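Database export, one record per block. Field names are fixed; values are copied verbatim from the stored entry.
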Amino acid sequence: MPPKAAISYLGPMPSQGLDLHDRHSFIPCFRVEIAGEQVFRVHTELSGQGSDLAITRLEVTGVAPLTPDQAHDALNNALLLYTVRRLEPLVAEWASTGTGPPQSGDVWILKSEDVPQLLALAREKSCHYQIRLKRDLFCTAASDNDTTLTSIIINNRRTAPTSKPLCQGCNLPNTDYICSHLMHPRVSGKNTLGGIMDRRAMTAMCDQGHTDRINAIGKCYAGGHDCWQRLIEVEEPAITPVSPLELAEAFDVLDAAWRLAFDQKKKPLLALSTVATPAALSLPCATRAEFETRISDLADLIDRIKIDEKLLRPRSKEELERDEDLLKGSLNRMDDCLHYKLPAQQHPAIDRAIRTLRTIRQARNAEQHGITEGGGLTAKLRDLGIHDAPPNWGGAWDVVRARAVEALTAFRHELMAYVNAP
């Protein structure tokens, strides 16, 4: 499973010591964490000219022109929303591919030509609970106590009538930057003789248990409560089924590509003393005991990968002593060789493939030795995309084989790219 990614708001950059003559005074700053580790930090700046233009247009245009203070606040919220929207797809890509950002920090600078985009963000509210049915808008977060409820059911939810102005005035924050931990909001309308005059979020739940803060629902956004987070949902890569013979074949093809890439004609990548282990990779699996045997055979084959000393990164005598334990494992040596021989742009694919094979070995160790640290076997199987073992050990073995083939194929592709490079 790809690592969990989260975006946190660090607050505005302090204005003290900054030259704010030619920039908007509010400079939001965000942090990105993947698997609990900070990997990126960014702040967004708007030029002074862009700031003046945006505030002027917010004050004098639109259905309801804003006061100077209201325009300033609307522009600040637009900058927050802009940053979150721009960050989310980047973070999803980093987390799903395991590549990480190209640098640890950045500054996103907006100018006058970006003002129309910011104005659109300032004036339009996105709400995932708002559904259009033909010509009419409905709120699917309606409370059971909402006196404006209709008999219309959408997505198994009772609904209440709403409109864009009513939704804009509702205290439930824009769902494009609402806190990911806010759940089950319940909104009620105020019905008068003149019609529905207002809609307000009355209750909600907090997945982090901040019951004291969830009462102030209107602050569950970036720049509101300091516990705000956006969790990035990353889809697991699809599993392509493989034939029973494909895993053994993938090892053979990788061996051929390795010899070609590094002129190792007389030094095979795999040191095999018997054909029994590769043959076992094609066998099916029905029980936990059989799964243990199959994944053990695969891990043993990974351990038989032999990397010639001449292919490793050159080291001084002191470095060799320091790295002696590091260079004992087959995957460690393979990782060292490929990072030394292949150019940097090929390293992310190598890292993902190495990580997959390491996880397979860790699953074998957890199964054989009863290791429970880090979640044990169940956690390692989840990392490989397996969620139904037990009891589906046959399906688990099919997924392990497919993941191994993906990793070995990635190695082969990168080696052939290296061979065919100018």
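Remark 1: Residues 125-221 form one domain.
Remark 2: The mean pLDDT is 88.
End of record.
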